[in-house]
Amino acid sequence: MSDPILSTNHDYSGTVFKPLYSTRVTLTGGTVSHGRASGLARSADGFLLELRMPEELGGDNVSPNPEQLFAAGYAACFHGALSLLARRHLLDPEPISVEATVSFGRDPADGGYQLSADLVVSWPGVDRQVAGPLLEQATALCPYAKMTRQGIPASIVLAADPG
């Protein structure tokens, strides 16, 4: 197997968003508490995952919850961006670890809910003077980091009644 192309623009052209990958997940069933739902999540390829409420919010902690999934996605995406940059600078990405903490809580601005997210990157054996600028570049490269800074284009619509 060959190494992936070490470029972020080899597949880019144009001035509009061009999806390289899309996925669809549908959530059904479950209970609602604290403005959050649990239930069954099924991806377009048929993968099924049961989401449950965390114990801290009255759940049973037997399956992942949305915050854990977001934390996993954010950590994985940032890890991938930093690993790409490490290889580009002839550094070993193997020891890199990224820990994501995602918190669900009340938004003091409106009394609704909001998330906060923090990453802690560990890169043993790499000088802080070298790692620091690469973390800044990875922050610009990682779409999850961009989303946490700027938001993302999104829409919410009511589906047509099938009946």
CATH class membership of the largest domain: Alpha Beta
Task: Find the count of extended strands (DSSP E, 2+ residues).
Answer: 7
If classified by CATH, what would the architecture of the largest domain be? 2-Layer Sandwich
What is the 3D shape? globular
What is the CA-based Rg, rounded? 19 Å
Structural class: alpha+beta
- Give the biggest beta sheet: 3 strands, antiparallel
CATH topology call of the largest domain: GMP Synthetase, Chain A, domain 3
SSE run: EEEEEHEEHH
Task: Summarize the model shown.
The protein has 163 residues and is an alpha+beta fold. The protein has helices at residues 66-88, 128-141, 143-150, and strands spanning 25-28, 32-33, 36-37, 39-43, 48-51, 97-106, 113-122. The strands form three sheets. It has a three-stranded antiparallel β-sheet, with no helix packed on it.
Question: What are the main properties of this structure?
Answer:
163 residues, alpha+beta, GMP Synthetase, Chain A, domain 3, 2 domains, three-stranded antiparallel beta sheet, two-stranded antiparallel sheet, 3 helices, 28% helix
